[in-house]
Amino acid sequence: MDDLVTWLRARLDEDERVALAASPGPWKPNAEHDEVLAVDDVTVADGFALSGNQLRATVGHIARWNPARVLAEVDAKRRILDEYEMWADDDDQDYEHAQTAANSAAALLVAVKLVALPMAERDGYDESWRP
């Protein structure tokens, strides 16, 4: 599963680069809910082409997925990968510890596959990783 972890870390690096290059978050809708504003009140998205409920829902969605949230999600997902690698690489010879490590690695591998699943449309995703 080293390929999955390597691929996923590269996707998280991409997400981090994009989030860091964007206007700072958290973002929020303006009073009319037709624009998304960064923390410095700069407009980062304008929903003018949409109408009514769709406009407000789209603006709210964009604001919710602001760079600060993306960066927090990248950090959390990296921590899952770190935990998986720690248990998967554990070579303690004590039988009980080895069983705990194997069970932990197996459970975390499921989590790693689930973390990768929303990114399955990105280049390089291997269908054998699908949980």
Walk me through the structure.
The structure is a single chain. The protein folds into 2 domains: 1-20 and 72-131, no CATH class; 27-65, no CATH class. Helix content is 59%, strand content 7%. The chain is built from 4 helices and 3 strands, in the order H-E-E-E-H-H-H. It has a 3-stranded antiparallel beta sheet with strand order 1-2-3, covered by helices on one side. A hairpin with a 5-residue loop joins strand 1 (28-29) and strand 2. The radius of gyration is 19 Å and the shape is elongated. 14% of the residues are buried. The model has no long low-confidence stretch (mean pLDDT 92).
Summary, kept brief:
The chain has 131 residues and is mainly α. The chain has helices at 2-21, 52-64, 67-88, 95-116, and strands spanning 28-29, 35-37, 43-46.
Strand order across the largest sheet: 1-2-3
What is the radius of gyration computed over CA atoms, rounded to a whole number of angstroms? Answer: 19 Å
How many DSSP-defined strands? 3
Span between N and C termini? 13 Å
Q: Which class best fits the helix and strand makeup?
A: mainly alpha
Q: What does the largest sheet look like? A: 3 strands, antiparallel
Q: Give helix % range.
A: 55-70%
- What general form does the structure show? elongated
